[in-house]
């Protein structure tokens, strides 16, 4: 280190290299410097648990439809949404051309039930499984939101998704009917009955779907469980009803239809409360049957929520 | 000023006692929490976040009681867990913005804070890509960013250097030091390596099987670690004899020698001794004090 020549006296920066004549003058500072302004504290507003819960619900809803996610996450939800829209669009075209109704309002949900079931099965695991599988849950719980807020946000997101899937085609169909100007008065009461049914169906399906999906951190298993449960319920319902009808026991057949959640909601809300025609191939039980359908629907929702809370109590304590 | 304090804090699980009457006080700055795996570090953090009720005793964070005011504590505290916690299909930006919103920041503020914090932890263009393709180092940075995004007053960092290569480890440690000094956020950082915490902490707490082994300022620890491990291919005893002759203190430990460092000149003596004896030097390593050693010889200062 001693081979460096000592700097001349008076010049702590060492000898200044001679600047050639005509060369660039002045100090050439670096261009485009990034200024580090240092860490800034945040002293703006901090909103409460409520807005955090809404933010979580919106985030989940976007995830269910694949918004803000890679393109492949959008394929299934939007394809199913497109299929749900088809009958409405076709029906409007038929109404416009031959002045006939191709699709009624209240049977819309039950006719399209495989599509709704596939959407529920494929997307409700998306709402809950990644948080368990990638262990994001502890991050949420280390923030002001609690377990009830978390479960509430997830249920709300899935309910809104299912409702959108059903309410948009119904509404498009209704607007179409008004625009086409069909002979006779518009079927406003049927439309409203179908919308009320859509609310009930969305809450019931979302609760069941999210509750089942929350039990496994694996998405594939969640999808399979939800679809298996739907196939089981609708299969058992159809077989039992058919057997009962073959022995001419139409009351028992009516009860058998209620095993299928789609017919259960149809019996409870549009048929039970609004008095529309049943969408099932047979009649539902009347009188006490309506009350039973409503109680059964609410019980299934309550059971799902209890299962969800129990599930997350356990998951959070790990 | 006290950032957090525990008083006779205990927590037992059906089969194990994770914390056993732990009483510690932590002041501002960077505090290290050292213990072997299963020593109760993560349990302590969970209790401090108000997520796990203590089975006995109590704890306060920023003057708030963990059992009664958990939600208020979680509002002003950041937490970086030990495990992976990043959904692979989101980008770092989206995830950090979402986590800021979950802490109650309004939308625009959340965006600004997320951009700021991601820059501070050293994530630039890659923050728009889905996190599934990130390296461990980048993932650790996002985990740190989400703990800082709501500008907490205290952050709990659980094993932040886990899985990082030596360079990533150094960068992470430097970043933690900056959080404690420049950012003015108090840090409680856990590790099972006392050696790495020595470099960045003002204060170190050592726990073992849920009990406090030692809690002291960093200066008291560094004095005890002034040894180097020397390993040579053949002639360990020759070297030991030579070093003793030259006035150094050596002890044999397996194939290696432990050399006490009196002063920087000790390294020169070692180098010259190895050269003179024409030995093959395999390694010279800074002595890593083990946690048990702290227990055996308490602060003799």
From TrEMBL, chain A:
<keyword id="KW-1133">Transmembrane helix</keyword>
<keyword id="KW-0472">Membrane</keyword>
<feature type="compositionally biased region" description="Pro residues">
    <location>
        <begin position="1"/>
        <end position="21"/>
    </location>
</feature>
<feature type="transmembrane region" description="Helical">
    <location>
        <begin position="75"/>
        <end position="98"/>
    </location>
</feature>
<feature type="transmembrane region" description="Helical">
    <location>
        <begin position="221"/>
        <end position="243"/>
    </location>
</feature>
<feature type="transmembrane region" description="Helical">
    <location>
        <begin position="192"/>
        <end position="215"/>
    </location>
</feature>
<feature type="region of interest" description="Disordered">
    <location>
        <begin position="1"/>
        <end position="27"/>
    </location>
</feature>
<feature type="transmembrane region" description="Helical">
    <location>
        <begin position="155"/>
        <end position="180"/>
    </location>
</feature>
<keyword id="KW-0812">Transmembrane</keyword>
<feature type="transmembrane region" description="Helical">
    <location>
        <begin position="255"/>
        <end position="275"/>
    </location>
</feature>
<protein>
    <submittedName>
        <fullName>Membrane protein</fullName>
    </submittedName>
</protein>
<feature type="transmembrane region" description="Helical">
    <location>
        <begin position="287"/>
        <end position="310"/>
    </location>
</feature>
Automatic annotation (TrEMBL), chain B:
<dbReference type="InterPro" id="IPR003439">
    <property type="entry name" value="ABC_transporter-like_ATP-bd"/>
</dbReference>
<protein>
    <submittedName>
        <fullName>ABC transporter ATP-binding protein</fullName>
    </submittedName>
</protein>
<comment type="similarity">
    <text>Belongs to the ABC transporter superfamily.</text>
</comment>
<keyword id="KW-0547">Nucleotide-binding</keyword>
<dbReference type="InterPro" id="IPR003593">
    <property type="entry name" value="AAA+_ATPase"/>
</dbReference>
<keyword id="KW-0813">Transport</keyword>
<feature type="domain" description="ABC transporter">
    <location>
        <begin position="4"/>
        <end position="234"/>
    </location>
</feature>
<dbReference type="GO" id="GO:0005524">
    <property type="term" value="F:ATP binding"/>
</dbReference>
<keyword id="KW-0067">ATP-binding</keyword>
<dbReference type="Pfam" id="PF00005">
    <property type="entry name" value="ABC_tran"/>
</dbReference>
<dbReference type="InterPro" id="IPR027417">
    <property type="entry name" value="P-loop_NTPase"/>
</dbReference>
<dbReference type="GO" id="GO:0016887">
    <property type="term" value="F:ATP hydrolysis activity"/>
</dbReference>
């Amino acid at each position: 280190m001693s081979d460096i020549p000592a700097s001349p006296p008076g010049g702590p920066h060492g000898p200044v290299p001679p600047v050639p004549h005509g060369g660039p003058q002045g100090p050439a500072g670096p261009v485009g410097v990034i200024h580090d302004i240092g860490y800034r504290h945040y002293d703006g507003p901090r909103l409460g648990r409520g807005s955090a819960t809404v933010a979580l619900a919106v985030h989940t809803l976007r995830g269910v439809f694949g918004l803000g996610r890679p393109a492949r996450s959008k394929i299934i939800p939007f394809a199913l949404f497109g299929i749900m829209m088809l009958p409405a669009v076709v029906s409007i075209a038929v109404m416009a051309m031959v002045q006939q109704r191709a699709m009624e309002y209240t049977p819309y949900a039950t006719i399209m039930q495989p599509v709704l079931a596939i959407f529920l099965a494929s997307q409700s695991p998306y709402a809950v499984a990644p948080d368990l599988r990638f262990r994001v849950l502890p991050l949420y719980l280390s923030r002001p939101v609690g377990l009830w807020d978390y479960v509430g946000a997830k249920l709300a997101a899935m309910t809104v998704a299912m409702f959108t899937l059903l309410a948009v085609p119904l509404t498009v169909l209704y607007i179409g009917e008004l625009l086409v100007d069909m002979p006779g008065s518009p079927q406003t009461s049927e439309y409203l009955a179908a919308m009320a049914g859509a609310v009930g169906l969305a809450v019931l399906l979302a609760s069941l779907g999210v509750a089942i999906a929350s039990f496994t951190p694996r998405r594939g298993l969640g999808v399979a469980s939800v679809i298996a449960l739907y196939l089981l319920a609708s299969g058992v319902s159809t077989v039992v009803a058919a057997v009962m009808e073959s022995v001419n026991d139409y009351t028992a057949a009516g009860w058998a239809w209620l095993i299928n959640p789609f017919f259960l909601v149809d019996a409870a809300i549009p048929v039970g409360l609004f008095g529309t025609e049943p969408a099932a191939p047979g009649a539902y039980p009347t009188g006490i049957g309506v009350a039973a359908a409503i109680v059964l629907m609410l019980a299934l929702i309550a059971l799902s929520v209890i299962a969800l809370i129990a599930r997350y109590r356990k998951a959070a304590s790990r | 000023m006290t950032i957090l304090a525990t008083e006779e804090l205990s927590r037992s699980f059906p089969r194990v006692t994770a914390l056993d009457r732990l009483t510690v006080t932590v002041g501002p700055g960077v505090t290290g929490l050292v213990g072997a795996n299963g020593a109760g570090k993560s349990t302590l953090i969970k209790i401090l976040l108000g997520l796990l009720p203590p089975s006995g005793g109590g704890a306060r964070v920023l003057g708030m009681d963990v059992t009664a005011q958990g939600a208020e504590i979680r509002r002003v505290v950041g937490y970086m867990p030990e495990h992976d916690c990043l959904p692979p299909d989101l980008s770092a930006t989206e995830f950090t913005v979402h986590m800021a919103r979950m802490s109650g920041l309004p939308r625009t503020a959340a965006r600004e804070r997320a951009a700021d914090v991601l820059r501070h932890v050293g994530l630039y263009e890659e923050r728009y890509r889905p996190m599934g393709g990130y390296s461990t180092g980048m993932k650790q940075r996002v985990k740190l960013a989400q703990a800082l995004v709501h500008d907490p007053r205290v952050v709990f960092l659980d094993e932040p250097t886990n899985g990082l290569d030596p360079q990533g480890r150094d960068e992470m440690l430097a970043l933690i030091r900056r959080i404690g000094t420049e950012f003015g956020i108090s840090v409680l950082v856990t590790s099972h390596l006392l050696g790495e915490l020595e470099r960045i902490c003002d204060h170190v707490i050592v726990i073992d099987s849920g009990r406090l082994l030692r809690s002291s300022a960093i200066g008291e620890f560094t004095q005890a670690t002034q040894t180097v491990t020397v390993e040579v291919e053949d002639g360990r005893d020759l070297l030991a004899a030579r070093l003793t002759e030259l006035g150094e203190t050596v002890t044999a430990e397996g194939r290696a020698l432990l050399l006490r460092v009196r002063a920087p000149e000790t390294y020169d003596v070692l180098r010259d001794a190895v050269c003179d004896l024409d030995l093959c030097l395999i390694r010279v390593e800074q002595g890593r004090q083990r946690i048990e050693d702290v227990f055996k010889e308490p602060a003799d200062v």
